Amino acid sequence: MNPKPSPDSRLQQQLLRFAPGLFFVGLIVLWEAVCRLAQLPTFVLPAPSAIFHAFLNVEFSRWMEHLWATLSVALMGFAISIAISIPLAIAMMRSELLSRTLYPLLVVIQSTPVVAVAPLIIVLMGSDDPSRVLITCLLTFFPLVVSTATGINETPAELIELSRSLDAPIRRETWQIRIPYAIPHIFSGLKVAITLAIIGAVVAEFVAAEEGLGYFIQFSTSFFKIPQAFAGLFFLAFISLILFKSVQWVQQIFFGWSLPKKK
Amino acid sequence: MTQQHERAFVRMDGVGHRYDPAPDAPMAVQDINLEIHRHEFVAVVGPSGCGKSTLLRMVSGLLIPSHGEVSVFGKQVDGPRDDVGIVFQKPTLLPWLSVRKNVLFPLKHKYGRYNRQDEKRADELLAIAGLETFGDKMPDELSGGMQQRVGIVRALLLNPDILLMDEPFSALDAMTREQIGFDLLKIWNEQPKTVLFITHSISEAVLLADRVLVMSKRPGTVLDLIDIDLPRPRSADTIREPRFSELTDRIRKHIYEPEAVA
Predict the structure, then answer these.
(1) Set of chain B residues whose Cβ sits within 8 Å of the Cβ of A180
(2) What is the 3-state secondary structure (H, E, C) of A133-186?
(3) Is the pLDDT of residue A62 over 90?
(4) Looking at the partner chain, which of B84, B90, B112 has a beta carbon nearest the beta carbon of A165?
(5) In the CATH scheme, what is the code of domain A68-209?
């Protein structure tokens, strides 16, 4: 009915496609312009060009060291969090007693600002990796438990009846019905948790660390190397984005069915 | 109605149930006496909340009645029985399994495995339902009507004696609904089962069933049990027969007149 899109609509489509990129570039150009025209000192607000230079001025191997320090803590915390929270959510779904007993404790942990607890954990456990990993765990744990439990409970009642009518063992009900049904929810939890893992690692570095991107930002700021601090911040944001995307990729590749269908 | 009426296959004797065990709690269903013959197709109609599904769950053994007794082939039903196939209102297929694997799911779920022969049987059943080319598709690639047919095929996999259907077509549009009704009769013809079919639709009940059980409002009791003496095979022409309207009218009276009086 509409074999050739009119030039107008084609323009509109192109605009839709490139709008996010254009907006981002525009923002950077505006930022650069404001800094230059207002002649803002770099310790107030560095221009993007200054940040870029600062980034290049730090040796690549230094970046990689800091990155590895942060990433290893974040990923370790994330992995331990997954290993504890998903089985725990399943156990809580199985046992009313366990869920009644533990849920209030989980809510208390979640309501406690981890940033405030972090110094105490460092005092208690020392300023090594284990305490940083623990801080990361505390931050990522709750969203994973909640999302897994939600998913498991949203299994259609009919399928549970089907399972009962087949007189199937309860472990198959869990593995073949409930857990797969929770997959989409687990992945929304994982996406929240992976970014929280980075936040946890950075918070831990703010409190006590000798390396890591959080430490790097803090120490650059304290020496008034503001462009360098910004460079660290952007690098961190970039890494966080990559991790978030990686979780999405894993879902796409291994659990494609769990994604909403594109039209 | 040319079926041989052997001895009662499913039998309900003074069956009643209250979900709340308190003695003054309301009954969901009460005083149900019913005999269903082997390979008979019985439809149940009644207003919402009259306990139609309760009846069905009692036959499957998922629910044990608080009053009376349900027996299948002379044996009291005292727990989930695996010789029933259940079809739900929604297809409830597993979105991560292909159509064929969804059909094989009851085996995988009950025994943890299935063999080549089972796969062959799944394909044969799919073919009866006209779905032979869809075995490798994923459920969301199928229309609602096709998904529900997969649901029926899944219920048939373990070759159950009894097929329990809980408003299986109510989520479908009117045209699909009529077609899938005839498809069901075709499947039933090739794989004879004792069917207990719950529906909101009076015409659907008359069109498909050998007998229609009309239930009252809660607490659900039997208002009428009507022999549907329309010839088989039934088709779209059946609807135009005067006998069809007589039968639907008779059921409609039961459903609407008590309300007019009240």
Answers:
(1) 94, 96
(2) HHHHHHHHHHHHHHHHHHHHHCCCHHHHHHHHHCCCCHHHHHHHHHHHHHHHHH
(3) yes
(4) B84
(5) 1.10.3720.10
